[in-house]
Amino acid sequence: MNSSPASVVGILDRLSIGVSRISIRHGHTKPKAKKPQPELTGFRVGLGEKIWVHNHIATGMIIYSHNAKLKRDSQKGLAQIPFTVKKQKPPVLREDYWAPLCLIELPKGQGVVGRSVMQKLQEFRRRHELEWGYQANKLMAMGRRERGEVIHNQKTNAIADIAAVLSGVGKGNLMWAKGPLPEATEVTAREAEAQEENEREAEKETEVEATSQGQTTTPEAGDAATSTPATKAESKPAAAPRKRSLVNAHIYWSNNGDLYWARKWTENVEHHLGLPAHVKNHRFQTKYIFNAPEESGSLIDDAEKAEATKEAQTEQEQAEKKGWFSWLGGKSGSSSADARA
């Protein structure tokens, strides 16, 4: 025999229609808008202040990196190269094929801006690889391998993208800053935004306190109290909107002809040929195409003197040489003359 349930819950469990369970949604006390905390990101100090643009000298592939040297098995670098056709994407990054194209340097303390610039550069490069625009028909008419070579060759597009990103193009680009920025500042863009939010919250709190005090006063006193802030607001001139400016950037080129692939450069970008004294990279080779430095007169004179001394030495050596039969009579000259004699 089946034993009868000893409790009401057991009886309800055996019924075909169960008891509906009512759940209570707990309220959230945390604010929806979180304050930025850049100190919790875990980035090393100075990350983003230097952006290295590495170029494949044979195919024109481009890799953006924060490191001056690419590791042979760098997964972050290989992930930036798209797969087009079999055996066209390199399995490793060989040091003899990759060389720095340029170095983008931002002011000290602007690592957040540099990381934003690098994100925009990678985003634009991916759009070049996937969105062909007016070249779509031409690329579709090519073979897979030939089309893959064109897609991999992003050198000229990368230089144009650098000019565009440093000029503030792109949604959310942190190159735009409110007010002029000094060359070296310790306040990052996120800290500035957090400071502005704190100021706004403080202003809101003062407004709430002012309204609460106005409600507690008598009508006559309230009219007088409300009239004084109005007169102050009328007398106080409206604050002019803060002008936005672009963060200064320096580009150190390995080839002074590459910067002309971009149509226009903004005034906040300064171009240099060769690396600065505080940056070392043995793979960075400087090449002159335009405005090659003229050789000084002293260098030319030294070269001419060296050539003259070399010619004199060769003439002296030829004069000291003797013919094949010089051991007979001690005569110098050619062997044919001695034989005829």
From TrEMBL:
Kindly list the GO molecular function terms attached to this UniProt entry: DNA strand exchange activity; single-stranded DNA binding; structural constituent of ribosome
Main location, first listed in the record = mitochondrion
Q: Sorted alphabetically, which keywords does the UniProt record give?
A: Mitochondrion, Ribonucleoprotein, Ribosomal protein, Transcription, Transcription regulation
Q: Does the keyword Ion transport apply?
A: no
Lipid metabolism recorded as keyword: no
Q: Which residue ranges have biased composition labelled Polar residues? A: 211-230
Q: Where is the composition biased (Basic and acidic residues)?
A: 305-323
Residues of the region (Disordered) are 182-242, 305-341
- Quote the subcellular location field of this record: Mitochondrion
Instruction: List GO terms (cellular component aspect).
Output: mitochondrion; ribonucleoprotein complex; ribosome
Matching InterPro entries, A to Z? Ribosomal_mL67
Family statement drawn from the similarity comment of this UniProt entry: Belongs to the mitochondrion-specific ribosomal protein mL67 family.
User: Per its UniProt record, what PANTHER family does this chain match?
Assistant: LARGE RIBOSOMAL SUBUNIT PROTEIN ML67, MITOCHONDRIAL HOMOLOGOUS RECOMBINATION PROTEIN 1
Instruction: Supply the name of the protein.
Output: Large ribosomal subunit protein mL67
